Structure formats: structure tokens, C-alpha cells
Amino acid sequence: MSETADPVDMLERELTVLAFELTTPRPAECVFCYVDRMLEEFGCDNTLRWAAQWRGMRAPRATALEARLAQRGGYCDCEIFLNGWAPSAGAVVYDEESDEWRWRAPRPSCCGVRRGSSQPCALWMPLRRPRW
Ligand SMILES: [Zn+2]
Ligand SMILES: [Zn+2]
Predict the structure, then answer these.
(1) Whole-angstrom distance, CA of residue 48 vs CA of residue 128
(2) pLDDT tens digit sequence for 29-82
(3) What is the pLDDT at residue 89?
(4) What's the CA-to-centroid distance between 122 and ligand 2, angstroms?
(5) How close is the Cα of 108 to the center of ligand 2, in Å?
(6) What is the 7 CA–ligand 2 centroid distance (Å)?
């Protein structure tokens, strides 16, 4: 490290590393757990950017992924969970105060999927009807 290292530069570099770590899928993490985690941190930008990010890093050959998500109404990252898939029953609890289903605490971590698989792990199930 040189004596003249600019602290702003260093901070920027650290933030870049941090952002990279935050947005890298965990080992064996399924696309659904990953997208759900990213939505909590960064929200939806009305595209399938997190699903596409996951695919690029974990399953570049799963080229049908976006089409499969769209088939169930997932035209952007948050719609995947509004229309297509929901956490399976054992993974959530009903919160009377907010009248909403929430993840069991602590939030269950991904059960893991085979490398290159774009299937959801056991935490997710397809929705028959919109919303729970
Ligand atoms: Zn969205
Ligand atoms: Zn998962």
C-alpha cells in the first residue's frame, strides 16, 4: 500500500468489493432464494435483473429460465413472488399484526440445488392462484 493512497479511492474500492459480495449467489443457492434476498436488499427495477444475474453466474446454460418465470407471471423479479412462487408452508408464519405472511425467524436459508439447476429449492412452491 502506498503512502499516498487516497482514502476516497480506497473506500470506493471497498464498496465495490462489498457490492460484489452482496450480489454474488451463495454456493448452491437456488435462483428463488437469491432473487428474494436481492429484492430485500435492493428492490425490483421492473426487469428480471436478479434472475438474469443469478443465471449468468450460476447457470449460464439455463437460457429458458426467464421464459419459464414469465410463463407464471414473473415478468420482473418481484412478480416472480407475486404471481409465480411462494415460500412453502413450513417456511413462513402468519403475522397477525401486519396481516401478512413472513419468513420464519431466522429466515430459513436456501436448501441448495444441484450446480446449474434453475429449479427452486424445497423452500418454494408454485402458486396455483395469485398471492398465497
Ligand atoms: Zn418487479
Ligand atoms: Zn433456495
Answers:
(1) 21
(2) 999 999 999 999 999 999 999 999 999 999 999 999 999 999 999 999 999 999
(3) 87
(4) 7
(5) 9
(6) 38
Between the CA of 87 and the centroid of ligand 2 the distance, in Å, is 10
Distance of CA 8 to the CA centre of its chain: 31
Residue closest to 57 by CA, chosen among 81, 16, 17, 27? 27
CA separation for the pair 123, 108 (Å, rounded): 8
Mean pLDDT of the chain: 90
> Do residues 84 and 72 lie in contact, with contact meaning Cβ atoms separated by under 8 Å?
yes
Find all residues with CB under 8 Å of 66, minimum gap 6, and list them.
48, 51, 52, 55
Q: Where are the domains of the chain?
A: 28-107+120-132
